[in-house]
Write a structure and sequence with these properties.
Layout: H1 10-18, H2 30-34, H3 38-53, H4 61-76, E1 87-92, H5 98-117, E2 130-134, H6 141-152, H7 162-175, E3 180-184, H8 194-209, E4 213-219, H9 239-244, E5 245-250, H10 257-267, H11 284-291, H12 295-311, H13 319-322, H14 329-333, H15 335-353
Parallel strand pairs: 1-4, 1-5, 2-3, 3-4
Length: 354
C-alpha cells in the first residue's frame, strides 16, 4: 500500500531516501489467477496497482545526460565558503521528468553523504545533506524562507519576519551540513512583479550565503526569457541568473529507437496475466501519437491502462483498451496533428517496402 508523505519536509524526504525498492509482484498465468480466492485476488490486484504506479524510473537517455551533468557540477563545487558556487537548472516542457531527475540525483547524493559522514555532524546535529522546496504562484521572499525552515522543522518557521526566517534557514543549512538545495517550479517566479523580483534576488543571496549547490527545475524557462531578463535596463541585477546558472535541457522523445527502447523497458515492468512480449512495443507509433513523446503522459496512459485491464479482466494492454482512457489535456489537444504525422510516416514505410 502506498504511504503518503511530502518531500517538502525532512521526514518525508528521509522516507524517500531510505525506503527500499518495492518488491515486484509475481506475474501469474490466467489459470492461476482464476484459482485465487476473492480476498486473495483483491490483495494481489492491489499490489499490482501499487507496482504499476511506482515501478521505478526508466534510465532514459535524457535522465542519464542530466545526471552526468549534475554529478559534474556538484562534484566540482568545492569552493571555500567565501566563493559563490555555480547552480544547475533543469529546463524543459511539462511532463518530461525534470522534477524526478532532480529528486533521484539528490536522493543518491543524500544516501552517500550520510554513509560517508554519519547520521550526525561532529557537533551532534542531525545531518541533512539535501533540502527541497517547491515554489508556488504566490511565493514571496518571506514564504520562500518559511518553506526552507519548515523543511527542517525549525520551531520559528510559523512566525518571524522575512529577515528572521532567512537567518533561521542559514542556521539550519550550516548546522545540518546541507550541501544541495532543490528549488522546484521556479517558473512561478514572475520577474516583472515586485514579489517575483524580490524572490529572484533572494535566490542569489541564498547562493552567496549558503554553502550549497542549488538545483532548480522549471517549465519553459528559456521561452519565458528567464535567463535573458535583466541583462539590460533597470533590472540589471538579474543578469547574474544567466552568468551563474548552467542550463540542462530536457527534450521530449523523438519517434526513433530511443522511443521504442523506452516502450520495451516499460513493457518489462507490466504484471498482467495475458501480457505478451512485444505486444506493447507494437503500439509504439500509436503511443507516440497519444503522448507526443512526453514520458509523463506515457506513464499516465500505461498506468491507467493497467488498472483498467486488471479491473475488467482483460489482463492485457491493447489499442482498443487504451482508446477508452483520457490523459492530460495537452496531449489530447495535440493528438490530431500527431495522428496525421503518424499516417504519413506509415505510408512512407509502406512505400519503401514495395
Amino acid at each position: 500500500m502506498t504511504t503518503a508523505y511530502s518531500l517538502s519536509r525532512k521526514q518525508g524526504w528521509r522516507r524517500f531516501t531510505d525506503t527500499p525498492a518495492r518488491t515486484r509482484p509475481e506475474r501469474m498465468s490466467p489459470t492461476a489467477l482464476t484459482r485465487l480466492a476473492p480476498l486473495e485476488r483483491a490483495h494481489y490486484n492491489d499490489s499490482r496497482h501499487d507496482w504499476h504506479a511506482n515501478f521505478g524510473t526508466i534510465a532514459t537517455p535524457q535522465l542519464k545526460q542530466v545526471r552526468e551533468e549534475l554529478e559534474l557540477i556538484v562534484a566540482s563545487n568545492r569552493q571555500d565558503s567565501d566563493r559563490v558556487r555555480g547552480a544547475a537548472v533543469i529546463d524543459g516542457f511539462p511532463g518530461l521528468g525534470k522534477t524526478t531527475m532532480a529528486n533521484l540525483f539528490a536522493r543518491d547524493y543524500d544516501r552517500t553523504a550520510r554513509q560517508l559522514g554519519g547520521e550526525t555532524t561532529e557537533a551532534g546535529d542531525e545531518r541533512i545533506p539535501v533540502f527541497r522546496v517547491g515554489l508556488t504562484s504566490n511565493t514571496t521572499l518571506r514564504t520562500l524562507n518559511k518553506m526552507i525552515c519548515e523543511f527542517y522543522g525549525h520551531p520559528g518557521a510559523a512566525n518571524g519576519t522575512a529577515a528572521q526566517l532567512a537567518t533561521f534557514a542559514l542556521d539550519c543549512v550550516l548546522k545540518c551540513e546541507t550541501r544541495i538545495g532543490i528549488i522546484d517550479d521556479v517558473h512561478f517566479i514572475n520577474q516583472n512583479s515586485k514579489d517575483g523580483l524580490a524572490v529572484s534576488n533572494h535566490l542569489k543571496w541564498l547562493a552567496n550565503e549558503l554553502p550549497v549547490t542549488f538545483i532548480y527545475a522549471g517549465v519553459g524557462l528559456t521561452e519565458r526569457r528567464f535567463f535573458d531578463e535583466g541583462l539590460s535596463g533597470e533590472s540589471t541585477a538579474l543578469a547574474q541568473t544567466a552568468a551563474r546558472w548552467t542550463r540542462l535541457e530536457v527534450a521530449s522523445f523523438d519517434r526513433d529507437d530511443s522511443w521504442t527502447g523506452l516502450i520495451k523497458a516499460i513493457e518489462k515492468q507490466l504484471i498482467l496475466a495475458k501480457a505478451r512480449p512485444g505486444k506493447l512495443v507494437a503500439l509504439d507509433d500509436y503511443l507516440f501519437e497519444r503522448t507526443g513523446g512526453h514520458i509523463g503522459s506515457l506513464i499516465t496512459l500505461v498506468t491507467r491502462g493497467c488498472f483498467k485491464a486488471i479491473a475488467n479482466g482483460t489482463e492485457s494492454l491493447s489499442r482498443e483498451l487504451l482508446e477508452t482512457i483520457r490523459i492530460d489535456e495537452a496531449a489530447e489537444r495535440s493528438r490530431k496533428r500527431r495522428a496525421a504525422e503518424t499516417k504519413k510516416r506509415v505510408r512512407k514505410k509502406e512505400g519503401a517496402g514495395r
